[in-house]
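Reminder to self: keep the SMILES exactly as supplied, no canonicalising. Ligand is zinc ion.
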Amino acid sequence: MNLRDFKLRLRLPILIILAIASISSVAVYAQQAIDEESTRLIREYTTSEKFLSPLVDHLPDSDEVPSPREVLGYVVGTPEKLTYYEDIIRYMKTLSDKSSAVELFPIGPTDEGRTLYIVVISDPQTINDLEHYKNLTAALADPRRTPEAEAQKIIAQAKPMYWITCNLHSSENGSAEMSMELAYRLAVSEEPLIKAIRQNCIVMLTPCAEPDGHDRYTDWYYRYTKGITDEEERFPGPPYWGKYVYHDNNRDGLQVSQLITRAFLQAFMEWHPQVWHDLHESIALLYVSTGTGPYYPTFDPIVMSEWQLLSHWEVEELTKMGMPGVWTHAFFTGWYPGYLSFLANTHNAIGRFYETFGNGGATTMERKLADRERGRLGATKQEWYRPLPPDDKVTWSIRNNINYQQTALLCVLKLVASQKDTFLYNFWKKGENAIEKGKSEPPYAWVIPADQRHPVETVNVINLLQKQGVEVHRLDKEFKLEEKSYPAGSFVIRMDQPYRVCAKTYLEVQKYPADAGRSYDDVGWTIGYLRGVETVRIDEPSILEAPMTLLKEELRATGTVVGGKARRYYAIPHQGTNNMMTARFLLPPLQVFAVEEEFQAGERVFPPGSWLIPADDKGEEQLSKLRIIARELGLTIYAINEEVEVNKHAMDLPRIAVYHTWSNTQDSGWVRYTFDAYKIPYTLISKDRLRLGGLKGDFDVIVFPSQGGYGDARRVVHGVDPEKGPMPYTRTEGFKFHGVIDSTEDMTGGMGLEGLLNLQRFVQEGGVLITLGSASTVPLSFGLVGNIGISREGRGGAQGEEALFVPGSIIKGEVVSDKSPITYGYQKGFPIFYRHSFLFSVPKKEERFIVVKYADTDDLCLSGLVKGAKAIKGKAAVVDYPVGNGRIVMFNFNPLHRFMTQGDFMLVFNILINYNHLGS
Ligand SMILES: [Zn+2]
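Structure tokens returned for the bound complex:
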């Protein structure tokens, strides 16, 4: 049929259309009634028939199972209607109660106590026997216990599981609405396509992947943006999505730090789905992920071609239906593996996503597409990867968005249902490839030696790998390789295991191609460097023969008090163990001193920054408290019986504030998460508190988190445009999900010059201001730090061979001043995570304030990519500048980046606990 015929057909009455669409099933269709009212409304809310497809232009009726409209009172995709999470789940529960094709599984809590779910849809017999099907995919996940012949038998009975996660990003909420209609349609429709999906697949659907943010956003929509119909007038959503992280909830797949990520990973490991499909909304009209490359080379080649197969199928199917603007390829790279659904790509499944076109709510508006460029690519140009481009201007509704998502999902499910054995086999085959590669090509393993400078972080790394399903062994006896030997008890991560890709991705050094151009996200993440843990790549196959035992459970870091009850001091050597922070806030009322130089007690050398806790007259009580602290936090504490002759200072407990702006809460969220993880007490403050002044009365240290990108000091200081104000973010009767994390009567306007002067006064009176990453542009641009300024060389956009280009890499840092408490616990050279940032310009006579610099070498990159090293090598990384009685400590990188950079955390922690003894 040609396109014109197809569109004409859309105008015909629904039953006739369906009959034409598939002659062979007329009888079946005729039997199933159509929900006339929902069908009428779906068509009404779609702004043009080309944004509708025969798959979703009607809704089947069911006597037993209520449609979303019957439960909610409106059809999915009704203009100006968003559904709160409670109601979405109420609908899903009703559906599962009434339909034998649907079952609901809770998979974990959110930070604010909501429950995450997977809605499973398949034919009733399959739903009755899900445990059996889970066992089948689990068997396919491990080819060592399921050789090929066995796998073929299992594949014949198994059904591919296709997991769709919706609305991870709170402003991208069309998919949460869509999920209800899709679930209903999949459960009740008797159309052959849907029956085939039910029969051959197990559809897993998470209606909302970040429910806390969903409700906050829904409140925001009703409070502020519902009435906005001009796309130029649109403004960003609420200041917070999840409790801690905003958009970065899709950048937690490597750290697995957030509750929702943990729940998803656990569910993934329990079900072993073959596809994980995450729904996003940003660009027009439907982008299907493949990416431009470079793909991360460790991913199995099969998955790289599966991405193509699936996406080209969707492009073709929707194009065939006359739906414009469906494309792939020219957006996104496919290198960074930390996106949520990319957990599938590191575990032999397929991780993919859509970007459909959302309005950030349910208001219909005219959207201009022609100038919506990403890089050099227009959304309306015909290209090989976009065969049917959309018009320059569209009137766009949430219903259109839902039609695209739902149609495309039904198409891809159709493909998976019809090729079920292929997808199951590929899943098994990728596991087998992993094992075979691990046996036949280097690296054969990584060894993590037992004796580490950072034993607690070593345990964290081992536990993280295990959480990812990676098997970790311990050497039964010493393993020798050339000159080196690894003692019994050292950890071995063998590469001949099913999740080799996952293990290798964490452990290896990344080499982002220098000619690849911009990347979509970080390009280097080698875990040994980031966390200060020694890992050794073993290219010698004999490691696989070494006697070793599989670890069966989570490890615990163990600590102890060596030497029993002390007569004079208890000493904790400072080697940069982050858990010392937790200890510091648990120790009061005990006094703690930091030594300012190295000292020796018996055989042991204690480096600068080590702690001395005077033994008190209560003896046993103090010892037992220290024993608990040592055990719980994995610290080793030494009893010292003689006086120690060494310069030292008392470490006073700081009163800490974390500042956040209302325009960028992403990195302040990670700072809060980091502080909470180590139980560091702080007060969260915003512009209102800065403007009030008198800061030194309440705080000793103010942490000013990175504001993203290169920073724009003026924008950071002046904040959200006051013309939009006043804009309360408060909890009210009508908006009960606002006013949490922080609240204000008016989000607009920043700290202003008034707040900035108060910050300056705070420092002059003896306070310490810590500015991280781009937040450092504020003191630099407003002249709070003498003649230290911003170098133009570090700015982005510079072209040519020599231009600095570091798209999120691990580079060599170096301690300049070992007298500064900021570098306590660090060795001379250590890794720093650096991503596109400004560079300091430090006049010669101010160079004495540089505490940390980048190594003065062209060979600066440890992992990722550094281009134009000349611009950054030998330059300042941390500057500790005296202002009046206080200090401003500026970082030009973000040492608290996404809870990934544990090796850099202590640079900040040291400032907190030595705040009134900085300088050197
Ligand atoms: Zn998104």
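Points to follow up:
Residues 169, 172, 280, 282 surround zinc ion (CB under 6 Å).
Residues 216 and 737 are 5 Å apart (CA to CA).
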